[in-house]
Amino acid sequence: MIEVKDLTKNYGDRLAVDNISFCVKRGEILGFLGQNGAGKSTTMKILTCFMPATSGTASVAGFDVFENPYEVKKRIGYLPENPPIYLELLVSEYLDFVANLRKIPSSNKKKKINAVIERCQLGDVRNRLIGNLSKGYRQRVGLAQALIHDPEVLILDEPTVGLDPKQVSEARGLIKSLRSERTVIYSTHILSEVAATCDRIIVIDRGKIVAQEAINSLGAAGATTKTELIVQRSAESVAQSLRSLQGVKSVHYQANGKERIVVETEPREEIMAEIAKVVVNNNAGLIQMSPVQLALEDYYLNLISGKRGVSI
Fold first, then answer.
1. CA 142, CA 164: separation in Å to the nearest integer?
2. How far apart (Å, rounded) are the C-alpha atoms in residues 171 and 139?
3. Sign of the C-alpha dihedral, residues 182, 183, 185, 191?
4. Which pairing describes strands 183-187 and 153-157: parallel, antiparallel, or unpaired?
5. Residue 5 phi/psi, 5° resolution?
6. pTM summary value
7. CB-CB contact of 229 with 278 (8 Å)
8. Which of left, alpha, beta for 40 (phi over 0: left; psi -120 to 50: alpha)?
9. SS3 call for 225
10. Structure confidence by residue, pLDDT tens digits, 254-282
């Protein structure tokens, strides 16, 4: 549905997007992560035909964003970080204006407006001035304008900014409900939202993609593995021996009744056997040995801090 190849964008002598390539499948929700200035918004602006790239190619639904921008725009709904709304209009007037811009036929326009008002839960404010609405409701109006023409692709830049916890939960449910109908690129700094909503993540740092991975397989493909050991005794001795093993990145232990050791290693299966052997040789009395799921926040922070790279 979306294909990006060798995409680069320069702002003068500043490289904002550095030769990135990725694909997004039909019906997939992709989380786009990165610090401020990493290149996320620039990439999304190129995909939505708001600006040209310096080099490389990008296509949406088979249409090149540079050669066929009109066809691309017809198939994309875009919610930028600051919603493109007019504060002096009523909600219903604004959506009518957007429907006209999108060339929705008059015979179908009222139905489309009512449907998107219901879906974005704007019924209570449809006849209120947008300028008098809370930031959360303005965000919903922005989402409604992105959905009104039933786009095949939805690109959302920080869609839950300003929403209260209940509204965030509702927005999450709405985005997840689009999975079977739309392809979604979802940029956010709220990592819990990515974990709860997205199928896959791309992490971009200083203009380069540093990871592409499915949410359900975080910690694979070049990331480290964490293993928790519970032993009866000699945790300090075991920890010292483990630090000497090739492939061990870090070892932490606590010895206060229940002796617990957490070992971070390269993702090689044979290391597990070596760890078990160390415990046996130290006569530590192994009670439990289990993997620790690498949290999304740890994974993300490790990537952008440059502690490790990920092959893609």
1. 16
2. 10
3. positive
4. parallel
5. -135, 120
6. 0.70
7. no
8. alpha
9. strand
10. 766 668 898 988 767 678 888 988 999 99
- In the chain, what are the domains? 2-217 (3.40.50.300), 225-293 (3.30.70.260)
* Tokens read off for 308: 């490790």
Question: Residue 102 class from Cβ within 10 Å (0-12 exposed, 13-18 middle, 19+ buried)?
Answer: middle
Q: What is the predicted pLDDT for the residue at 129? A: 97
CA distance 169 to 166: 5
Mean pLDDT by 10 residues, the chain (312 residues): 94 92 92 86 93 95 94 94 92 97 95 94 95 90 94 89 74 79 83 77 89 66 71 88 89 77 80 88 87 64 56 31
pLDDT digits (tens, 9 = 90+) for 11-46: 988 999 999 999 999 889 999 888 888 899 899 999
The structure tokens 């404010």 sit at 125
Tokens in use for 98?
């957007």
CA distances from 23 to 107, 151, 196, 235, 292 (A): 37, 18, 21, 46, 30
Residue 288 identity: Q
Q: What is the pLDDT of residue 308?
A: 42
